[in-house]
Write a structure and sequence with these properties.
There is one protein chain. The protein is of the alpha+beta class and 442 residues long. It has three domains: 3-139 and 356-441, no CATH class; 142-243, no CATH class; 254-350. It is built from ten helices and five strands; from the N terminus they run ααααβββββαααααα. It has helices at residues 3-39, 46-82, 85-91, 96-139, 260-301, 306-309, 315-355, 359-373, 378-405, 411-441, and strands spanning 157-164, 170-178, 184-197, 203-217, 224-237. The chain has a five-stranded antiparallel beta sheet, with no helix packed on it. The protein is flat. The relative contact order is 0.11.
Length: 442
């Protein structure tokens, strides 16, 4: 390695460490501000709270490293350009590509390390963090409630609240599904409610106000009842709601808790299930067409052909059979849709394992020309440009995920598109810088 290569890399190392620590501090502070008041004073040891913060920092590292690379390259090359050191190097016949190459090589090595981190360390940390949160949620139920999302924190029920007041523990616009009775579909709606323990922690009490109870008997669906209440209480045994570590191996891993190989295997499994459901739906359509043809032939062929054309022998029963086929077809279509959605979700997470890792290289390509062009703006301009490009990257990533979730484009294209766009922008800026120097030299 030549002397100027070592010098350029040395200017990056200190800035990278400072940027990484600063970004991690911002992430951790944001998490602590949001969750600490919900954890402290709930009977948890300080070690448990510290473990939550440490485990949650795993996903923060996956974002902080690419961001630090972007900030580092912008600041380092901006500093070199501002002090005219870069000008001297280029006057000595060193091209802009040669100056940037050692930084790109280190960024590539860092991308490979981050790929291993995203596939080996982060899934395990996310899994342990979610398991720990689930254990804590049993002790403080409202901790496991998110706005506009169903939760199974109450055994036998699914509960959703449009709004949650974390300070008072009050819930607003509540929807509660009772899953304890398979012969009855029960939906409870309430304008306001609260979940709390009794003073002796023996029972968990759900208090609902200004609500309605809707009941429908299954599977006949021939009996419906509606009840209105001003205030209603549901009492549950609090056994198992105290803090106790569960067996980590007993939990099923979610998408962010799996390695790329596991995600790919799960995606292929859902793809196969979707294909099987599609084949079953096609068979159902063929059977439906045949049933309709038999009904039509019965109506046009007269009584003589009735027995041959209608297996049920009665047109009314034939229509019931067709209705049953339509019901089966709806079930298969729902399975196709659900399996396709699951497949896309797992493929999105699979591609993100690699695209976020190689964002380190992408941001190095973008950051070097940005730093040179922003040399007169100092730290403020470099930080602003870094933030703007990272926000652009994240907006493209989120937008791509939404497009992939809807099935408009394949997940690989949507997830990798931000890397491609920013890489092309960075290479174009390097090309313009190189040719502008050559033109000025002539």
């Amino acid at each position: 390695m030549k002397l100027f290569d070592r010098y350029i890399l040395r200017t990056h190392f200190g800035t990278f460490f400072f940027s990484f620590v600063t970004i991690m501090a911002v992430f951790v502070l944001s998490f602590v501000t949001k969750f600490l008041e919900r954890l402290v004073g709930k009977g948890l040891d300080f070690g448990i709270i510290a473990e939550v913060v440490v485990l949650q920092s795993a996903w923060m590292v996956g974002l902080a490293v690419p961001m630090a690379v972007l900030v580092t390259t912008v600041m380092a090359f901006g500093s070199l350009a501002n002090s005219s050191e870069l000008t001297v190097m280029r006057a000595g016949g060193i091209s802009i590509y040669r100056l940037v190459s050692p930084v790109l090589l280190v960024a590539l090595a860092l991308s490979l390390l981050m790929e291993r981190y995203n596939n080996v360390l982060m899934p395990g940390a996310n899994y342990r963090a979610n398991a720990l949160f689930a254990d804590i949620t049993r002790m403080k139920p409202t901790l496991g409630l998110d706005k506009n999302a169903f939760s199974d924190i109450i055994k036998g029920y699914s509960i959703m609240a449009r709004d949650v007041d974390n300070e008072t523990g009050e819930l607003y616009d509540i929807v509660l599904y009772d899953r304890a009775r398979p012969d009855m579909r029960t939906v409870i709606l309430a304008a306001k409610g609260k979940i709390e323990f009794t003073p002796d922690n023996a029972y968990l009490v759900l208090t609902l106000e200004d609500g309605q109870i809707h009941e429908l008997r299954l599977p006949e669906m021939d009996r419906y009842r509606k009840m209105v209440f001003a205030k209603n209480r549901y009492v549950f045994d609090a056994t198992g709601y105290g803090f106790e570590r569960s067996d980590e191996g007993a939990r099923r891993r979610g998408g962010k808790e799996l390695s790329a190989a596991d995600l790919l295997a799960m995606a292929r499994e859902f793809q196969e299930k979707g294909d099987e459901a599609q084949r079953a739906a096609i068979r159902g359509v063929d059977e439906l067409k045949a049933g309709i043809d038999r009904i039509r032939s019965h109506r046009t062929g007269g009584a003589a052909s009735a027995a041959a054309s209608l297996p049920p022998a009665v047109p009314g029963r034939a229509i019931e059979a067709v209705d049953g086929m339509l019901g089966d077809l709806d079930v298969q279509l729902d399975r196709i849709r659900q399996n396709r959605e699951d497949y896309r979700q797992y493929m999105i997470e699979y591609n993100k394992k690699y695209s976020l890792a190689f964002a380190c290289l992408v941001f190095a390509v973008v950051g070097a020309p940005l730093g040179i062009m922003a040399r007169r703006g100092g730290f403020g301009a470099g930080a602003a440009l870094s933030l703007a490009f990272f926000v652009l990257y994240w907006v493209l990533m989120i937008g791509g995920e939404k497009i992939a979730e809807q099935g408009l484009l394949i997940p690989a294209v949507c997830v990798w598109l931000p890397n491609v766009i920013l890489s092309c922008a960075g290479l174009f800026m390097l090309y313009r810088l190189s040719h502008s120097v050559n033109a000025s030299a002539r």
